[in-house]
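Lab meeting minutes (informal)
Scribe: AK
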Amino acid sequence: GTQLAAGQVAFQHDGTETTSASFQVNVEDGNEDSSSPSNSTFNFTVTADNDAPVLSGAGGTLAYTENDGSKVIDADLTITDVDDTNLESATITISSGFQSSEDVFAFTNANGITGSWNASTGVLTLSGSATKAHYESALESVTYQNTSENPNTTSRTISWLINDGTDSSSAVTSSISLTATNDAPLGLDGAISLLEDEVYSFELSDFPLNDPDGPEDTLTNIKLVDMPDRGHLMLDDKPLESVYTINFEDSSLSNWQTLGDVDIASTDSQSHGAGVGFDELVAGSSYVLLSTSSG
């Protein structure tokens, strides 16, 4: 009686998904005759409380190289939920390092689960009531793709959350490491009009140049890959008789302004081509020289 009076006797539910509990007691005064004390039963009504789902198994790092295409982010995820058969939604977020112009998540709708990608916020939302196993498969099928030819190589942190319709799990994270690769410079065809016997001095603006890796990349030369069959290509007033590479002292793309003293002299009114390439890995750009008669 002293312990009861002191509030030292208590009941704690075991956390199982049950709606009732009971136990029996009997009371003695210490002076019983041969009879046994009678038992009394205490009954408890248990109101269930939702348990949040648990997502585990993340933590790996996807190694992604420029132009890899779509790759699965994490195929080792596990879902548990002690009081729910189905889940209702999930979110996969680029929570650190997100680049809206190049990062893309993708998911193929399946098993009643649909995906929606928000390219502005870097969040892929999965929705639809489906079993835990189906959601696990769905999360493990989510892919990442970087669409840039000059990707930001900051690591991306990926946060995963699932929801059972009432509570969300704690977030778990995976990572993506990015490696950029060198892209060959590009050029476009061009055309020049000049009078018969006129000498034309090229400027860099005559050559539409582009490097997908950006202006911080260094271009080292322009390679002449073909000679015109009429007229002459000259460098510093000297005819070029064969394939020639023009090197640059200041070769930063952003600082290029003039090509230098590379001239062409045309001797008749026909059209003739000179091929120009940026390095041997790039398809050449053909520059057609159009001359017109002076008289």
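Next up, CB showed the second protein from the same session:
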Amino acid sequence: TCLLLSNKISKITTIPYGYVAPFMLMIIFFAALQATRSLEDLVLLISIGALGTLFKYFDWPRPALLIGFVLAETIETYYYQAVQFYSWDMLERPGVLMLIFLMLASILLSIFFKKRNIKKDKEKGIVKEDTNPNHVYTFITGELLFVWLLMAFALYALFNSIPHQFLGGIFPIVISSILLIFGVLLSFQLVSKKKQKDVLATELTYNGELTTEWKETWSNFLILPIFLFGVWILGFLPALIIMFLGVIRTKMNAPWWKIMLTTVIGVGFLFFVSQIMSLHLPEGLIADFIFKA
């Protein structure tokens, strides 16, 4: 069935972004609300989204962030059990030694193959194109500030974990310490005149002004906190209607009949699903005030 429908499904990618984005955001927000129907879920969603946006802008690997976020609770639980049952002798167990060996091997092999490819390119006379020819060294960069922000969070977690009992604080202490170590190493590279150009993925400013890419990134991201504010004041469905109207109008400049039709289909579908699932969506301060009055 999937193979037969793949040709039709692939045509979804031809739909302009301005029409797809409201439906994607609607599904994401609706899924985030299913567990507790609380605005705190949306706040966490937008916070993680902002962090992921920064990861993307600075060309950091986002899969690692996602895997760590999803598996953190499970890893913490099993780490507690391992420390409680075996103490630090767990590091001598065959399974742990094998995992450490595989991690180190993957890191060393990636470095080895990278250097080998660079050496082969030099032997063949292949000159790597300079991706940032207009780079001007500056001590403080946006990526450095982002690293320091993460290090500040790690320091807070570290000092907050130290007063706890051994089992209660060991996991955040270890993770915070690792983050601080790699943060220091990356900071030295980012402030180095020799290495900054190679390490720095992108810049926040150019000729004293914010780059166009930075402005576009966060102008698009502003949709999320604005929607959250709308949910808090007006309620989920009214804020969703406004988001549909605003996004499609600003991104596509479509005629109003098409905007209204798309909005009715999207919001009507969500309302239908919420009624079937007996989900109570947030109503907002205005609705609470009216009904309480």
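CB comment: The two ends are 54 Å apart (CA to CA).
No objections, moving on.
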